Amino acid sequence: MTSPADILKQTFGYDTFRPLQQEVIENVLARKDTLAVMPTGGGKSLCYQIPSLVFDGLTVVVSPLISLMKDQVEQLRAFGVPSLFINSTLSPQAYQESMEHVRRGEVKLLYVAPETLLTQRILSLLDSVQVDCLTIDEAHCISEWGHDFRPEYRQLVEVRKRFPKAVCLALTATATSRVRQDIRNTLKFSTTNEFVASFNRENLYIEVIRKREPVGQVIELLDRYKDQSGIIYCFSRKQVDELAAYLASKKYSVRPYHAGLEDADRKKNQELFIRDDVQIIVATIAFGMGINKPNVRFVIHFDLPKSVESYYQEIGRAGRDGLPAFCTLLYSYSDVVKINYFIDQKEGDEKRVAIQHLDAIVRFAEDERTCRRKPLLNYFGESYEADNCSNCDNCTSAPTPLTDITVYAQKFLSCVKRADEKFGAGHIVDILLGSKNEKIMRWEHDKLSTYGIGSELTKKQWMHIARQLLSMGYLKQEGEYHTLSLTVKALESLKKRETVFGVVQEAERTKKDGKRKVGIEYNHALFAILRQKRKEMADADGVPPYVIFSDRTLTEMAAYYPQSRESLLKIAGVGQVKLSQYGDAFLGVIKPFCEKHGLQESALTPSPSLRDASRSPSGRGESIGERTRIVGESFNDGATIQDLMERQGVTKGTILDHLTRYAMAGNKLRNGGDLHEATSATPEQQQATFAVFDESGTMYLKPVFDKLNGALNYDELKILRLLYLIYQQGNAAP
């Protein structure tokens, strides 16, 4: 049987798996129902595409968006994978022909919308074939707590019952712990079969810029990203139309996208963008899910998003090919006022949740000291341990100098106290500024001693002071209207007249010394020629350019100058099928360019930022993540598996994965007795397993599972693999 690693290389052209891909694939091939949560661009598709080529029967993929189905099928066919979709866009004849292909067993992957799958016609079709895998993409749609709940998704449980022998794989890029639990409960999944990848997109540079002249600032950014594909998100349809029209008048390649456009216009503009005929899309949040364009190099937020989740989803459109991409948020407090206006139209829980979401994104935007990745990852229940990511503005710029704001803090806190701790920040600021609005007069707050004592600052500055006091723990917000009250810390501070440091005036930030993370060095002139060649071939085939080759593949070609088909096959994204289809055409560009400029083929040693992973035995790179390092060092310090599970809040399998990565990266692990106690395998089974590891290696567990005839499950094999690695380090003989 062809191994997943062989399929990864021969069909898809990659040497190594991305984090968790291998584990998910092995779990699916072992026919264990699986929930996999991976960020946008994390490689979810391969988690079912590779098993589909191992299974004898059909893999059915439930996808909510027709555009995604079309893109996926186009890419799979380019790799030589027999696949098709059935949806409402097909003519009656094409619909029937597709069904016949499925019925004759000529298809490995079938994409359908949930509504289509639930029809009797399609269910009867599937009854006539062997269904080995049911994949549910965008699985968060199952949960009523998800951001895009679709009732049809709840009915997929009945489809599962109809095909009990088919393993089920649920995939999503956005799922909080509450949503994951709901998915598991609905689909009857075990927690041991849940895989949650890191949501850290290391290739994204994240920055927040104070909004002053937003249109001019956008122009500056576009000049920075000349000839690159990007998305500009705006709050309203009107803003989209105005900004797109202005940019078009300045000769930028741009189109608008929002729900107010005619369907045909939206579809056309999206298609032009996907096919690289238009470089820039100016859009509302309507433009997002379903956009499968790997080479989006920048995302600009012209306005403040409504929540951290929305922001994460929208910047997730950038850099899906793994190459460096840039995410810029233009922030002004006027955006907060605008969003607040719409929130005020809501009621009850909806209003309360909206306020909480807004507060979180405002704190994110105004924080000039904390690494941008920390609050983003915290939202998904993931901690970011590194002190400096080297790829956001807060980690690459010097923070705004702190000043003594004690007097301002005392005025604000005293005003909150004198207003009986019954009002929000906006009302407190109005008191400090001496406002004569109706609410002030009705409550007779013009008679307070703090009335009008804050005229030296603007309302905007006072609100900034308020948010700093909240983040520093002097204030807390409660209730539907976010009423402010003083904490014990505030009372002690007022009593002792402690000095408070913060920021009053907005100031320009300066860059720190040191370099920001960058991608591989490559020949930009050759890259431009290769990109043009790709565009010509894509237009001739009627497919988006990335179906031919991704930007990442072209970048490696422009970095290493492959001169033969053998060398070209070593480039990421070049498998046997694409080599046969496109290899000679691209060599016909590379070789003359190298001859003209006296360039020689270079050894292929891509950087980790470019490849899925480096070429270390672990398949995850010689470097390890911060959490893996912490787990490994803690284990060596004497922590047990159970200790680590409790400290990290994860399953035993996840801890074992961390320890395995730690060991495979060349770090020694103690020979702990708790590992021996964790396995229920007999001594004979252990010796038999070690013998198989000697023969097959430790990278993949599926060959070991097969050679042992399934006598040990994957959890047991993980423990034994770890023991084997420890023995290999010279700790003891197995």
CATH topology of the largest domain: Rossmann fold
Secondary structure tally: strands: 19
Strand line-up in the sheet with most strands = 3-4-2-5-6-1-7
Low-confidence stretches: 606-623
What's the pLDDT, averaged over the residues? 85
CATH architecture of the largest domain: 3-Layer(aba) Sandwich
- What do we call the CATH homologous superfamily of the largest domain? P-loop containing nucleotide triphosphate hydrolases
Largest sheet data: 7 strands, parallel
Indicate how many domains the architecture comprises: 5
Cα distance spanning the termini: 29 Å
Radius of gyration equals 28 Å
- Shape, principal axes of CA atoms: globular
Number of helices: 35
The CATH first-level class of the largest domain comes to Alpha Beta
Could you tell me the strand content as a percent range? 5-15%
Please give the share of residues in helix: 40-55%
Structural class: alpha/beta
What does the model show?
With 734 residues, the chain is of the alpha/beta class. The chain folds into 5 domains: 4-196, P-loop containing nucleotide triphosphate hydrolases (Rossmann fold, 3-Layer(aba) Sandwich), CATH 3.40.50.300; 204-398, Rossmann fold (3-Layer(aba) Sandwich); 403-505, Winged helix-like DNA-binding domain superfamily/Winged helix DNA-binding domain (Arc Repressor Mutant, subunit A), CATH 1.10.10.10; 524-597, HRDC domain (DNA polymerase, domain 1, Orthogonal Bundle), CATH 1.10.150; 626-728, Arc Repressor Mutant, subunit A (Orthogonal Bundle), CATH 1.10.10.1390. It is 48% helix and 11% strand. It has 35 helices and 19 strands. Strands 3-4-2-5-6-1-7 form a 7-stranded parallel β-sheet, sandwiched between helices. It is globular, with a radius of gyration of 28 Å. 42% of the residues are buried. The model is unreliable at 606-623 (pLDDT under 50).
